[in-house]
Amino acid sequence: MLWGILALIALAAFFGLLLGLAAIVFKVESSPVVEQIDALLPQTQCGQCSFAGCRPYAEAIAAGEAPINLCPPGGEKTVQALADLLDVDVLPLEEDEVLEGPVVAVIIEDTCIGCTLCIQACPVDAIVGAAKQMHTVIESECTGCELCVAPCPVDCIEMIPVKKTISNWRWPEPQYDVNNEQAANIFTTIEKVLAESTHP
User: Fold this and answer.
1) Residue 30 exposed, middle or buried by CB count within 10 Å (0-12, 13-18, 19+)
2) Which residue from 44, 55, 106, 159 lies 20 to 30 Å from 16 (Cα-Cα)?
3) pTM of the full structure
4) CATH 3.30.70.20 fits domain 99-170
5) Which residues lie below 8 Å from residue 13, measured CB to CB, with a gap of 6+?
6) Displacement of CA 7 from its chain's centroid (Å)
């Protein structure tokens, strides 16, 4: 009995050592560019870029097989960061991928039947609930990927705009109306100043 236990321990130690050596000898070196690209992606693993997750998408970008504008959850900021990292032109997100500001999933709890299909579909575990029990979404964890909407058999999931709070409010982009009379006067004045400076 004792010899059998010792033999098993010896075999386990031998195979553990063998696996450790194999991991060192056959280690695949990861590209630092892939690591940097992957770090800029939001890690939602939502699949909206048509890849299985952020890591495969990062590898495709590094290999030149995918453009940098396929990540709706990352938005324009991620596209800009990727363009800066790779020293390429900024590409706009495609029209059907652009969201009207950030959104979050909300479950209509009175309609929810507790099927758990949305829980299985959520890539970031932002939905809590149990079988045949009411589910709910943890708003702070939801990335707005919309992957939970299609599996729901009773259509009880809606995407709503994220509520504005002090922590997520941003100054709006400046808007310029070129038809505005005041703006036209400013442009006219600038043109006159430029003309006078070039023709003394």
Assistant:
1) exposed
2) 55
3) 0.51
4) yes
5) none
6) 50
Q: How far apart are CA 24 and CA 15, in angstroms?
A: 14
Q: Which two tokens stand for residue 39?
A: 């770090």
List CB contacts of 116: < 8 A, sequence separation 6 or more: 129, 130, 131, 135
| Domain-wise residue ranges, the chain | 32-97, 99-170
Q: Where are the alpha helices (DSSP H) in 41-176?
A: 54-62, 75-86, 117-121
What is the Cα–Cα distance from 158 to 152, expressed in whole angstroms? 10
Query: What is the structure's pLDDT at 163?
Result: 73
Give SS3 for 105: strand
b/e sequence 7-28, b meaning 16+ C-beta within 10 Å? eeeeeeeeeeeeeeeeeeeeee
Tens digits of residue pLDDT in 45-97: 777 788 888 899 999 999 889 999 988 778 788 889 999 999 888 888 764 44
Give the pair of three-digit tokens for residue 34: 């892939």
What is the DSSP secondary structure assignment for residue 174, as one 8-state letter?
Answer: P
